[in-house]
Design goal:
Helix content of chain A: 25-40%
Radius of gyration of chain A: 19 Å
Structural class of chain B: mainly alpha
Strand content of chain B: 5-15%
CATH superfamily of chain A: P-loop containing nucleotide triphosphate hydrolases
Structural class of chain A: alpha/beta
Oligomer: heterodimer
Order of helices and strands of chain A: EHHEEEEEHEEHEHHHHEHEHEEHH
Radius of gyration of chain B: 31 Å
Distance between the termini of chain A: 29 Å
CATH topology of the largest domain in chain B: MetI-like fold
Largest sheet of chain B: 3 strands, antiparallel
Shape of chain B: elongated
Shape of chain A: globular
Strand order of the largest sheet of chain B: 2-1-3
CATH architecture of chain A: 3-Layer(aba) Sandwich
CATH superfamily of the largest domain in chain B: MetI-like
Low-confidence stretches of chain B: none
Distance between the termini of chain B: 54 Å
Chain lengths: 295, 426
């Protein structure tokens, strides 16, 4: 990993990890009441930066004061037990939370120094720059070609049919789907298998050439073989794209990500390089989770 | 904990009663469906049996002499002479020749009553379509009066209804039967004419056209407005007290008795905006207002049932809310919205009460030619005929119901067909 990682709250984390060393889970829960994230949250080469973000659904707070950077051209994995708020945080990165009624985001999220929640920001433009792949493959009920071509079309990225064809082919190639669908581009995207559909959704997302791709448990509905293909794809894509992936699968996080963020009950517990998280986690909760004591 | 073997016994025992309950439940369902089907069947059979005789009419064969002098016509293109000519004299003369024993004035009136009051017009039409018949004689099947028609049809069924005829008339009909000069023919008039005071002359075409023009207006107004309202409320409007208030009101409007909409039409469209009464345009306006809530509610349900994942996918790609709606939500919801609209239209087609309030219940003999011609509609026509005292109107009423049902069934089938067809696209 080439990026320099600056450790934040270093002094804090030391004292905290010490007094968290012992005790069962209930004690941990009390201890994270006013938890400050341990590990290295910030990065010099940050594409997106999340600072003191809290997310509320109505009166319920889903994320408590989370701060983390998303490093450019890297994969950051967000892991944690169900309901820990990792998807919520992911969805606030391209403001998909706007569509949920009663959802409020406090704090600062910025991309390339630009505040994502400033009133001046255009959400449509943001979503063209930050693509998203969802948990369940959701191809449009259209042909494979139209699925991929939709993004470039609405954003007016091409001047000719020929260019559009090229983008579609290029995107499908990068998603590793071209050879499987080249002969049936006009058939409905919904007729593909689950794994193919998810790769189609990835192709659809990269067709707009976003800078960041958010993936919300992209493999949870897929079988192991399809999952392996998607993981390969994520690795390839990370050379050109900044990727944030939410996953329940710890092996997956270990395999595809450069950094890992562990969430627990809405709190960002630990952020560290992936090897470290899976070999020497700083925080006891992280250790308990990755060793399978709960989650 | 009880032993597994005992548990099994218990499960088996409970299974018996569970299966019994299931069977009873199913039987109830089957009984309900059968009852419903039976009711529909009885209704349809009754209407069909009563109405089918309206598609035939009794005709009497007479020797008609298109006498130039009697008519006072030299040239058939002379409109004035055609208007002035006493066409009824043609069949009256023929009847007198047929039954020369009739002398007295009252007897004559009875004799003329064998033939429809409008028979003269039929003869005029006949002569105009075949001009070379002028001054010639032909054997012409002329429409019988409705009392004769009722009697003859009941006679054929074996239960002669004689109450409306005198003995002399019965005698004459018998004579005609013996000579094979009275028979049932297909009643083409029923589908090609407007309303009439004479049951044997009535036709459903006027009401059919009135219904058609009215529904066109209803569809043109309520479909776009309803769908636009549904899309706005479902996709764009903020959820606050106002939209909640509007939603509650729309739901209430859907349950308002239809006659209230007629009163609204009377008070606002006629009295305030001075829209002429009795015209399909006005009927369409009133029915559109009545149908709107139905269309809005069904369209909103259709929009709600569009999977959120598709919306998210489009939004995630950077589609603007407008593009999400136009590219995905509306096409996906279209089958549901169309079905709802057609069902709303079908309801509007069968609606009588509001139209009574805005004068579409008037007696109108002409077939309307447009949206601003006075007209009546099918259900009102049924109401009018059912209200008429002549016995011959019974079969006409049933026949009109058959026509209305045919329209309704066609519309509902087209709703099913449209839904199937549009759903396949996706």
């Amino acid at each position: 990993m080439s990026t320099t990682v600056v450790s934040a709250a270093e002094t804090d984390s030391n004292t905290r990890s010490q007094h968290l060393m012992s005790g069962d889970q209930t004690n941990f829960l009390n201890d994270i009441q006013d938890h400050v994230t341990v590990g290295t949250c910030f990065s010099e080469n940050a594409k997106m930066s999340i600072k003191n973000v809290s997310v509320f659904y109505g009166n319920k707070q889903a994320i408590f004061d989370a701060s983390v950077d998303i490093t450019e051209n890297q994969v950051i994995a967000m892991i944690g037990p169900s309901g820990c708020g990792k998807s919520t945080l992911l969805r606030s990165l391209n403001r998909m939370n706007d569509t949920i009624e009663g959802c409020r985001v406090k704090g600062h999220i910025s991309m390339d120094g630009q505040d994502l929640y400033s009133p001046k920001l255009d959400v449509v433009e943001l979503r063209a720059r930050v693509g998203m792949v969802f948990q369940k493959p959701n191809p449009f009920p259209k042909s494979i070609y139209d699925n991929v071509a939709y993004g470039p079309k609405i954003h007016g990225l091409t001047d000719s049919r020929y260019e559009l064809d090229e983008i579609v082919e290029e995107s499908l190639r990068r998603a590793g789907l071209w050879d499987e669908v080249r002969d049936r581009l006009q058939q409905p995207g919904t007729g593909l298998s689950g794994g193919q559909q998810q790769r189609l959704c990835i192709a659809r997302a990269i067709a707009v050439s976003p800078e960041v791709i958010l993936m919300d448990e992209p493999c949870s509905a897929l079988d192991p073989i399809a999952t392996a293909r998607i993981e390969e794809l994520i690795e390839e894509l990370s050379q050109n794209f900044t990727i944030a992936i939410v996953t329940h699968n710890m092996q997956q996080a270990a395999r595809v990500s450069h950094r890992t963020a562990y969430f627990h009950l809405g709190k960002l517990i630990e952020v560290n390089p992936t090897e470290q998280v899976f070999t020497m986690p700083e925080h006891n909760l992280t250790e308990s989770y990755i060793t399978g004591r709960f989650g | 904990m009880s032993k597994p073997s005992r548990n099994l016994e218990r499960i088996q025992r409970s299974l018996v009663s569970r299966y019994r309950a299931e069977k009873a439940f199913r039987l109830c369902g089957i009984a309900a469906v059968t009852l419903g089907l039976l009711a529909v069947l009885v209704l349809f059979a009754d209407i069909f049996l009563k109405g089918k005789s309206a598609f035939s009419a009794t005709y009497i064969q007479l020797e008609i002499n298109y006498d130039q002098e009697v008519l006072g016509i030299d040239d058939l293109s002379d409109e004035g002479a055609l208007m002035l000519a006493d066409w009824d004299r043609l069949h009256k003369t023929a009847l007198r020749q047929e039954f020369p024993q009739v002398r007295k004035r009252s007897e004559r009136r009875e004799l003329y009553a064998l033939v429809s009051n409008g028979a003269g017009y039929d003869l005029k039409e006949r002569l105009l379509s075949e001009p070379e018949l002028l001054d010639q004689t032909e054997k012409f099947w002329i429409l019988a009066d409705d009392d004769i028609d009722t009697y003859y049809k009941s006679l054929l069924k074996g239960r002669a209804y004689t109450a409306r005829l005198s003995l002399a008339q019965l005698e004459r009909v018998k004579q005609l039967i013996d000579q094979d000069r009275i028979e049932l023919q297909f009643n083409a008039n029923f589908l090609s004419r407007g309303d009439s005071r004479e049951p044997e002359q009535v036709g459903i075409k006027g009401a059919m056209f009135g219904s058609f023009f009215t529904l066109v207006i209803t569809l043109l107004l309520s479909f776009p407005i309803g769908i636009a309202a549904a899309i706005y409320l479902e996709e764009f409007a903020e959820k606050n007290r106002w939209t909640e208030f509007i939603e509650v009101n729309i739901n209430n409007l859907a349950a308002v008795p239809s006659i209230i909409f007629g009163l609204l039409g009377l008070a606002i469209f006629i009295n305030f905006f001075n829209v002429p009464r009795s015209i399909p345009f006005l009927g369409g306006l009133v029915l559109a207002v009545m149908t709107l809530p139905t269309i809005i509610i069904t369209s909103r349900a259709a929009i709600k049932s569009v999977p959120p994942s598709i919306r998210e996918a489009a939004l995630g790609l950077g589609a603007s809310p407008n593009q999400v709606v136009l590219h995905y939500v509306v096409p996906l919801a279209m089958p549901g919205m169309l079905t709802g609209s057609i069902i709303g239209m079908a309801r509007a087609l069968g609606e009588t009460a509001p139209l009574l309030m805005i004068g579409m219940v008037a007696f109108i003999a002409d077939v309307p030619g447009g949206f601003t011609d006075p007209a009546t509609v099918l259900p009102v026509q049924i109401f009018l005929w059912a209200d008429s005292p002549e016995r011959a109107f019974i079969e006409k009423t049933s026949a009109a119901i058959m026509v209305l049902l045919a329209f309704l069934i066609t519309m509902n089938l087209s709703a099913v067909w449209l839904r199937k067809k549009l759903e396949r696209r996706w």
